[in-house]
Amino acid sequence: MVEKSLDDDLCQATVFCDWQGILMIDSLDKGSTVTGEYYAKLMHRFRGSIKVKRRGKLTQGVPLLRDNAPVLKSRFSKAAIAECDFVKINHQPYSRDLVPCDYLPFPNLKKTLRGTKLRVDDELRAAVERHFADKPN
Q: pTM of the entire structure?
């Protein structure tokens, strides 16, 4: 499972996906901060999404590739990942290897949104959801 955050002038979208497609999209209003508590709740919601969209996957173990954001080192985040039985895979900070989330599906999303004028958070949320709507889940 891969988590990737997309920052914009409006809101922040976090997209969770695996090799089969998008599992969950979360968005946070502009000016809000991802705290350890928020991230912990997000992990539990993500676990619920896996349960619904990838039946049986939780019993096999879920590897979670994350970046090196400071919030991910908080005790709340670490506790939530442990509670959800996710296996952490850390994104190497200066690896020359390509990471799937760096070339699929996010550059295509950026291409789709390039030149689009979005005025409010809800427009960005809708654009991201439209982009991924026709992709496999």
A: 0.70
